[in-house]
Specification:
The radius of gyration is 27 Å and the shape is elongated. Strands 2-1-3-8-7-6 form a six-stranded mixed beta sheet, with helices on both faces. The chain has 15 helices and 17 strands. The longest helix has 22 residues.
Amino acid sequence: MIGEIIAIGNELTSGRITNTTSAFAARELFLAGHEIYAMHTIGDTPKLIGEALKRAIRRVDFVIVTGGLGPTTDDLTNEAVAEALQRPATLNEAILEKIRSQLRDPDGQLDALEKLAWLPEGAEVLSAEERMAGHLLVHDDIPIFFLPGVPVQAQKLLVDIVLPCLSGWSGCNKYQRMRLYKTVGLPEHKINQRLMPLEQEEQVSVGYYPVDFEVHVSLSVSGSSAEEADILLNDAEQRIKEALGDYIYGTDRETLAEVVGNLLRAKRLMFSTAESCTGGLISSQLTSVPGSSEWFAGGVVAYSNHVKEVLLNVDRDLLRNYGAVSGHVARAMAARLAARVGTKISLSVTGIAGPGGGTKEKPVGTVYIGLFYKNKVKDTLHHFSGGRKEIQEMTAQTALDMVRRVLLAD
C-alpha cells in the first residue's frame, strides 16, 4: 500500500524538537512492505492541517497523522479534521470514563482533559488498553491513523496496532514485497553499476540510500498475486546477492553488531575488544544487542599509554619505539587482551581521531586495527577522513566488518 505521513506541531517546524517519529514510521512501514508517497511537517494551523489531509486522501491508500492530540489549547488536530472532513466532534464516552477513572481529583482536572474524549465523527480508538491517545478514521475508504506526538507513544501504537491493521486491510489489491539489503565496503556508484540490469526488469524497483558509512539497497516487487510476488522477490534477491556478495552484511532491521554477534554465537566464541581512539564505541554497539553476554566477554578502553601497559600488558618498548598509533601496538593490544581475559578472538583499534594530534607521518585519520584469532594476530592500516565523530564511527564500522569477514571466511 502507498501511504503519506503528516507530522503536526509548532515545536517541529521551529526546530525545537527533532521529528524522529516520521523517520521511524517511514522505516517501519517500508520494512512492512509499504511505500511512502510523501512526508510533511506542518505547524499547529487548522487550515494547513485540513489542506494537507484532504490532499493526502485523494492520492494515497492510507495516511498517518502524528501530533496535536493532547489536551492543551495548541493541540488542534482533531478540530481541524472535524472541520476539513465535515465530521463534527463527538464525545467518546468510553474515553471520558477512562479519563475519569484515572484521575485522583476528577473535579480539578476533568474539564481540562475532557478535550481528549472529543473525536471526529466516526473515529475509533486504536487501543482501549493504552493510556495514550490514538484513533482511526476511515474517510472515503481511506484509513487515517492519528497517533500522539510523543515519539515513544506513537512508535508503540504504530508497531502494535497500525502495522497489523494495514497488513490485513481489505482495500489493498496489490501484492507487494520489499526487502532492504545493508552493505558495507562498496561505494554507492559501484553498487548501482552492479545492479543496473536488475533495474530494467518490469515489476521490480531498486533504490540506493547512503546511511552514515553504509549503503542500503531497497528492493520492491509487485505481483498480481501473492505467489507471483514471492517468486519475483526470490528471483531478484538471488540476483542481488550474486552481484554484491559478502558486501551485504544483513537485511531489514539487522545491525552490523547483531550480525557479528550471531556469527560468534554460531561458532561458540567469546569476543573481547581493546579500544583507544574509539573510546568504547565498539563495545557500546555490541552491548546494544540483546543477549550479547552470550558472546561478548567485555572491552577495555585503553586511552593512555600507561593503561595500555598496565591493563593490556603492552610492552613499553613497543610504545616508545613505534608509538601508540602503530601496527605493532595494535597487534599487541589484541593479542595481550585475548590472553588476559581468555577469549579466542579479540579486536583492537588505535589511531588519531583529531582534530589535533596528527603529524606528517601519521595525519589525523590514521587508524590501525588489530585482530587476534586462532592464535594468530594481524593488523591493518586505514586512513579515514572527516571530523572526530566520523573517524570514530568509521573505525568502529570497519573493525566490526573485519571481524564479520574473518568469521565468514573461517
